[in-house]
Amino acid sequence: MRLTNKLCAQHIGWHFKKHWLVQGKRVPKETGAAAELLKLGIVVKSPEDILNPKLEKKRVRIVGPRESAIPEDSAHPNWHSKVCHSISDNSVLIGGLPQAQVLTNSIELQTFPKQIEDAIANQQLSNAIDKNVRNAILAAHVLDAEQVKLPKVRLPERPAFNLPRTYGISHERVNRLLINKLLHEIEKLAGRSVSVRRKMIDNAFFKASLTKDGDLYGFALTAEKVVFANRAIEAIKGKFEGSLPDLYPMKSTISIPKQHIYLTDNLYPLRTDINCSHPHTIFSVFNKNLVNNVHKSDVTTSQLQARTLLKAFAVAAARAKQLHGESLEGVLPKPIVVQSVQTDGRTFHFGVLQLNTLDLGANSTAKNYWFHRPAYDLFSECGYQVGRTSLENYNGDVFRILNAFYNNS
Question: Which residue of 51, 138, 215, 244 shows the fewest CB atoms closer than 10 Å?
Fold first, then answer.
């Protein structure tokens, strides 16, 4: 390579472009003409104001498929200065069953009432009935034709790993089919003399507002299946003693969401003049993908039992308010008994609540009674094995308890 002389030349075109940009941004000098015009009352306008005048846009309310949302602030028509502790379907009490007992003023009895215990012990069911129940379980969990995308499965040890999505029967449909088929088998056993006095409703909504030690509580819960009867369940005979758990240093309101926008009305799905309007048995479904703690941890067994109690209490309180007026506070003229069943499709938890009083304060002498047993597993595994349907470790006690609940009166 031949060395050449170093040239110290400048690009004239580049300098000309830069000089053009600088000269194009020069600010006009103030001549004082604008001030003189303002003294004479003449308004000075820039060319942009004349060529591009600002247009004020008016809000036009267009009638569409839905109304605009109302801001959730103090201007809301349902705003209250007093806080309401709202309990809904997805609520989980962090304190579990002890917190639910204090909240509902209920003492725990780890057994069923005597008439139900006797009905369970005296049942004589044939093998054909157990076979029908097995077929009902398989029909709900395996043999249904629905195929939808199931929720994602996460590995706790590998939370960022994406597993392949699976298809199958949705959780909602499995539980609806299972409950309906089990009730169908029970109705066949009971006969027309009993089934004619029972009516069923799907997705019944109950709402009740109560006060406890100056705090306001709002119960707004849904029961996936409700069995109504033409006659209320008789009050449980006997007087039961017990004490409420000590939650110190926690309060009974812990983990319950607080709201300022609410309605203090009470709602029961049926009128009193309907023949079969008395609450008999409620069925609620537990879905771990929808119901969880505020810190996203798994629901414990105690919290699951508390949810069963809250569902029964909401139904009984709504019925009591309907019968005796919304201003009722204190001991009921006649106790209300509600049977509650909660399931996730495999595990069943049974309980019986007797509502004696709506006075939930700490100084209340009357208590409500909560009878229940630990949860039962209907089976351990249900699915396909080597291309054939398989049901392992079937537990017939679940069907016998359901049968005793249905026939209780």
Answer: 51
> What's the rounded Cα separation, in Å, for the pair 404 and 397?
11
Residue linked to tokens 């119960």: 219
For residue 150, give every residue at least 6 positions away whose Cβ sits within 8 Å of its Cβ, in sequence order, or none.
165, 166, 167, 168, 170
The gap from C-alpha 59 to its chain's centroid, in whole angstroms, comes to: 37
Q: How does strand 347-357 pair with strand 79-87?
A: unpaired
**Distance separating alpha carbons of residues 309 and 340, to the nearest angstrom:** 7
Q: How far is CA 314 from the centre of its chain?
A: 13
Query: 347: burial class by Cβ within 10 Å (0-12, 13-18, 19+)?
Result: middle
User: Which amino acid is residue 127, in one-letter code?
Assistant: N
Q: Could you tell me if 275 and 230 are in contact, meaning their C-beta atoms sit under 8 angstroms apart?
A: yes
The DSSP 8-state label assigned to residue 383 in this structure reads E
Position 302 scores a pLDDT of 96
pLDDT number for residue 364: 87
* 390 bridge partner residues: 383
Q: What is the DSSP string of 219-245?
A: EEEEEEEEEEESSPPPPPSS-------
Whole-number Å distance between alpha carbons of 308 and 303: 9
Distance (Å, whole) CA 374 – CA 351: 9
Q: Are 368 and 353 in contact (CB under 8 A)?
A: yes
What's the rounded Cα separation, in Å, for the pair 357 and 105? Answer: 9
* Mean pLDDT in consecutive groups of 10 residues from the start of the chain, 409 residues: 69 85 82 87 86 84 75 87 94 94 95 95 92 96 94 88 92 96 96 94 96 93 96 92 90 92 94 94 95 86 96 96 89 95 97 95 91 96 92 95 95
Helix (H, G, I), strand (E, B) or coil at 139: helix
**pLDDT score for 61:** 74
